[in-house]
User: Which sequence fits this backbone?
């Protein structure tokens, strides 16, 4: 299988690799996929509570090159967006940007799922009463 | 708090030529890309090509043309080849049928026996780790009223002889078990299976595509009745193979699956691929002469590759029996790293992965699954197939590239991070498990 230049670029120079403190109230973590399926993505966002703007994003991915590229791209795209704007990102846009072939569309779906899961996690934290100042 | 992970920038692959160094060559003189996928196919040995060349232009005759010198020259080439093939496996020339390759040989063997012995019984025994050429042929026979038992294999990839003993019944006409597996290189106890089959009066076919020319195979000592052979796995040309069919003790008969001019004792019609057959013969002769030395060298290189990789990385697992294995095979899983992404990282090395992403079906290797290797580790597997033309310098280069890429991808892997934090990945409730 041949990869698009953009997939190769993200694979060789992935953006925003790393981890943030998943216990921080400003951080939302999405962990999607399963090892048995050959893809696991962890995408984290750090949100400014005043503006709801995603100020930072990090990812780690176990998966093929397209999965790595999709999650790397997702972190680039969510940065600077509000959480509501980030929820508008569609997997089809990822497919288009990375020129993913049909067999790799599930990688883009997983990246979209990871964004949603991270935002969902963050939103849950905002609703829950903060009893103790956790790991600040 | 965020922790940034350093990623290796492009261009540190070690594959960029230094000044004064030939382009596409490493400082150690390794020519890139490195081919280490010799279970898929082998490059032709130049001596094989040399032997074949006259049979394209000068000796182009049809081996079946009995009344002129063009035909005789072709026939002579074919008969020399037949002798060489027979000699390598301890057979006689009349027991060698030339085919288009091992897939055809498997089809002819299984369908041919099934049809010929239909009145005796309808039960066939095979194993789940067989090549698709055997499995899909058996599946077709099932549709036609045959009963097929697909034996499970043990954790090491070997079949259980006691189980085989139990499942052979009075309707069993054929046992088909491969000699050496194409993915994990595991060598089955062929001689024991053959002995058992002969005691029970059952025909024994073995797909020996990966084994012939690599390890000693003797059809008489091993009680093999029918055996598939391929040229392009032993430094011969593609598109040609052979089927060994026993002629006495017992005499095995086959129904042909290709009808026509009655070539190859009526078992395989069609004009003979003379240059290909000549090449197969030469490849067999070379393997026979060089097998002892070559298998030693292969095992040495293979062990060096294993030590080089496993000495520097933790959580690397060998798939299948180590003791009962082809000398040139190394199949290992790198936990927490997905196989296709690993292949991308070592893109100047040609190897194969059992990862779903590398297959058309999006299913991980059924062979590894049959060993009880979890799907996660099956996705993480790489098959290295060493061959006649690999060097020590290539092995060292490949090991370096693999180690460096696995390390980089593990830093990218959430699973590795979780494992290092002490999370038991088996107890995690994965969101995508329903897939």
Assistant:
């Amino acid at each position: 299988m041949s990869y698009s230049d953009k997939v190769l670029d993200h694979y060789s120079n992935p953006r925003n690799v790393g981890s943030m403190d998943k216990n921080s109230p400003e951080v939302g973590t999405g962990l999607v996929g399963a090892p048995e399926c050959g893809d696991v993505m962890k995408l984290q966002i750090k949100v400014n509570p005043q503006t709801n703007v995603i100020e930072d994003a990090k990812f780690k991915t176990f998966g093929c090159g397209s999965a790595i590229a999709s999650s790397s791209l997702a972190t680039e795209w969510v940065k600077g967006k509000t959480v509501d704007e980030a929820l508008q990102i569609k997997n089809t846009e990822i497919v288009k940007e990375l020129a993913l072939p049909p067999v790799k569309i599930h990688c883009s779906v997983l990246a979209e799922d990871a964004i949603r899961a991270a935002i969902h996690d963050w939103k849950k934290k905002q609703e829950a009463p903060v009893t103790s100042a956790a790991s600040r | 708090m965020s922790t940034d992970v350093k990623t290796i920038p492009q261009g540190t692959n070690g594959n960029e030529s230094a000044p004064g160094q030939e382009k596409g060559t490493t400082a150690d003189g390794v020519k890139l890309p490195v081919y280490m996928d010799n279970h898929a196919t082998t490059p032709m040995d130049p001596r094989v090509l040399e032997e074949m060349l006259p049979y394209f232009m000068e000796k182009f005759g049809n081996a079946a043309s009995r009344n002129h010198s063009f035909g005789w020259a072709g026939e002579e080439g074919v008969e020399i080849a037949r002798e060489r093939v027979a000699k390598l496996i301890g057979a006689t020339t009349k027991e060698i049928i030339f085919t288009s390759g091992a897939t055809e040989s498997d089809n002819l063997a299984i369908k041919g026996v099934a049809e010929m012995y239909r009145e005796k019984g309808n039960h066939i025994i095979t194993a789940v780790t067989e090549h698709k050429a055997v499995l899909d042929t058996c599946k077709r026979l099932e549709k036609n009223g045959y009963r097929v038992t697909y034996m499970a294999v043990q954790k090491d990839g070997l079949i259980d002889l006691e189980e085989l003993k139990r499942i052979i019944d009075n309707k069993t006409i054929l046992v088909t078990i491969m000699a050496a597996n194409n993915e994990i290189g595991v060598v089955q106890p062929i001689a024991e299976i053959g002995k058992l089959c002969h005691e029970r009066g059952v025909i024994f076919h073995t797909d020996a595509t990966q084994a012939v020319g690599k390890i000693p195979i003797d059809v008489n000592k091993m009680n093999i009745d029918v055996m598939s052979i391929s040229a392009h796995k032993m430094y011969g040309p593609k598109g040609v193979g052979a089927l060994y069919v026993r002629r006495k003790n017992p005499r095995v008969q086959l129904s042909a699956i290709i009808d026509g001019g009655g070539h190859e004792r009526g078992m395989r019609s069609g004009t003979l691929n003379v240059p290909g057959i000549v090449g197969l013969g030469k490849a067999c002769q070379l393997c026979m002469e060089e097998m002892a030395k070559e298998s030693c060298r292969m095992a040495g290189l293979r062990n060096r590759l294993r030590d080089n990789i496993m000495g520097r990385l933790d959580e690397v697992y060998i798939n299948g029996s180590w003791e009962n294995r082809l000398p040139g095979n190394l199949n290992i899983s790198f936990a927490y790293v997905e196989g296709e992404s690993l292949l991308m990282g070592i893109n100047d090395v040609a190897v194969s992965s059992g990862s779903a992403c590398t297959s058309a079906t999006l299913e991980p290797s059924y062979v590894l699954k049959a060993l009880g290797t979890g799907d996660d580790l099956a996705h993480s597997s790489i098959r290295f197939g060493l061959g006649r033309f690999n060097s020590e310098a290539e092995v060292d280069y490949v090991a370096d590239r693999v180690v460096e890429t696995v390390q980089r991808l593990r830093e990218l892997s959430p699973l590795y991070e979780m494992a290092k934090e002490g999370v038991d990945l088996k107890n995690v409730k994965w969101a995508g498990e329903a897939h």
